[in-house]
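Collaboration report, partner site 2.

Our partner group contributed sequences for two proteins of shared interest, and the home lab folded both. The records are reproduced in the order in which they were received, starting with the first partner submission.
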Amino acid sequence: MTALSAALQHCIRTVPDWPAPGIQFRDITPVFANAALFRRLIEHLAQRYADHRDLIVAGIDARGFIVGAALAHALGSGFVPLRKQGKLPHDTLGEAYALEYDQATLEVHTDAILPGQPVILIDDLIATGGTMLAAVSLIRRLGGQLHEVAAIIDLPDLGGSTRLASAGAPPYTLTAYAGC
């Protein structure tokens, strides 16, 4: 485990039974409140993608917006919000998916990603992979070239990383929680 991974694990809090009984919610908001750690996180990600030009960062509603927008700023690239259904004001493309405790639809503006444009997809966490797989599908349907899928937290026991890898979108994660 790297020093950054250890610092992230120390700062991320677990909220039992939220948003539903039996869920152990990994809350990344304390990382955002810790200026030094948040800066380290964004600098780490920016270094990882520094050599890639013409890419765009896509972030998933809502915590992926925070990390994704900060990363896009650090890279000098654009940012694409992938939102929950009904939240975007222009023409959208949608993809339905199952959550570990519900169902939802993710949407993106139809003109947000150019055909052939390299995309980094980012969110705070990979659980079952449903949200990320829906986002990957939207990016591909718009013609974007998925460069990498990234998350701060992986819950490997829920199988999302394996599902993403099987779909040709192996994820990069910074810290994992087994036995979640």
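Second partner submission, folded after the first:
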Amino acid sequence: MSAKQTGASTVALKNTPDPTSPQHRSPDGAGAAPPKRAAPGELAVREGEEPWTPAEVAEARGGLEQDAQRLRTEILSAETAISGLMRDSGDGAGDDQADTGTKNITREHELALASSARERLLQTERALERLDAGTYGLCENCGRAIGKARMQAFPRATLCVECKQRQERR
């Protein structure tokens, strides 16, 4: 992407190649610059993609906010269940081994659900922060646009497909 000087800051222009951009760096991401902020009101898109419309941005934000609220409710529910399981685990006198094992498995399952929900909530809140900062849709590894279609399918994405594939191969 090429850059246009505006006052004291540099703004990336969409769909114009720049040989010094992160996409022309080594495939392992070495030396990748931090993601550049999009111009106010604009989000990053890949070459050939239509720019984000205000309605699409609002839909993405609304979906993320709904997810965050749902996850908070899920975490509260799981924590309530865990609290009850922990309270009940002390009065297991007379339980046979199968009952004790079932209680342990149930407690571990609830703990795993709560942990997973907390992680997804953090990812969702981070995506909302990136929307506010103008870096939503930029790969945190190489700085290139992740792609509008990928962001619409998985709004919490932080890596482009190429960087995600490299990460999963490790």
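Feedback sent to the partner group on the second submission included the following. Residues 1-35 have pLDDT under 50 and may be disordered. The longest strand covers residues 3-6.
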